[in-house]
Write a structure and sequence with these properties.
With about 70 residues, the protein is mainly α. It is built from five helices and no strands. The chain has a single domain, classed as Orthogonal Bundle (434 Repressor (Amino-terminal Domain)). It is globular, with a radius of gyration of 11 Å.
Length: about 70
């Protein structure tokens, strides 16, 4: 599954709007929208912050695994 699908799925699962999540990430909603649409790559720093917010691994966000658990 592509990164943009994963971050949208997680946002919806956690009940955030794009605007709310963009505020948590310190950006405007249109910029975050582009990440979810796949028209902009998600920078590493944002991947780290999203993984922290959702408590999942970066590998999960990148679609490298279907297991969202972080390594211990």
């Amino acid at each position: 599954m592509a990164t943009y699908c994963r971050i949208r799925e997680l946002r919806e699962k956690h009940g955030f709007t794009q605007r709310e999540l963009a505020q948590q990430l310190g950006m405007l909603q249109p910029q975050y929208f582009r990440y979810e649409q796949g028209t902009r790559d998600v920078p590493t720093e944002m991947l780290i912050r999203l993984a922290d917010i959702y408590q999942v691994s970066i590998d999960y966000l990148l679609g490298q695994t279907d297991n969202p658990e972080r390594a211990k």
